[in-house]
Amino acid sequence: MRRTVFSSLALGALSACASVPEPDNAVITAPTLVEAVRAAPPPPVIEPPAEPPKQETRRGQRPPTPQQALAAANRAARQTPAAAAFVDATLFYAYEPGALYELHTNPAFISTILLEPGETLIDIAAGDTARWMVSNTVSGAGEGGSTLVMVKPQTAGLRTNIVLATNRRAYLIEAVSAAGDGYAAQIAWRYPPPPAPPIVEKPNPVPRAINDAYRIRPPRAGAPPWTPVRVFDDGLRTWIEFPADIAAVPGSPGRGRPGVGDMPPLFVRTGEGTELVNYRVQSNRYIVDRVFDVAELRLGRVDPIVVRIERRRPSRTMRARS
Questions:
Q1: Which of 172, 10, 155, 156 is nearest to 79 (CA)?
Q2: Lowest CB count within 10 Å: 116, 163, 210, 303, which one?
Q3: pLDDT tens sequence across 89-142
């Protein structure tokens, strides 16, 4: 009897709950909340930071070490002897700031370094002063004097560097010693022409007479392409004019510019012999700050090509050069 009454009461309560209507502020059921979440826009995707590429560890693909980078830079800046750069026993380098110049020495001989006339040596230093003798002196006097640095190793198989600081430039030299008969008796430099000074207009310049009575004598085998087309002087200076298509500005071999072997050096014959003469380069002309009677343009070492220049006696009617 009691079980029947309890069951009836439970059924009645369930019927009453089912018939009660939902209020307006009813709590959202679980299925409704899931649908709202699905309808919302997805959050932005944040990519993790990219990892730096890993260095290759296989042989030949590793980055160069500091020592390897320094060795590569020195190889690129090093200038070595070339057969066409010799004039007699003097090896001429094309001067460039920051370049390394090789000096090949021998324990049985003294090698010399010749600086530009009028250039003053301020300081000199060598990496190995125990096994290398380095000293300096002056050849000549006055403004035409040149500093001469003498280098001698004590034994073969040595290598060091020498730094020369002057009032005009710095020289970086790598000295190497070896046995045998070969050595550099002397090294010197060809220098780029100085920048032209600004042109200053001078009122009523005094005309200066010029003399173009020069004889140009090329070799019998044929005139080289750099044979001068005209030579003249004004009593103080001499101009040697080459063909207009000659690139007369000296540069550094192998770097896209004309090399020192492309244009011949100038020698002047005097009563004491032949001497190398300094000159300035202006377009396709050599400008020599002196007047000479006989000079030679020589190119080559073993069998040089020689073009002779002879100054004849000027005529009485000399043209005026303004």
A1: 172
A2: 303
A3: 999 999 999 999 999 999 999 999 999 999 999 999 999 999 999 999 998 877
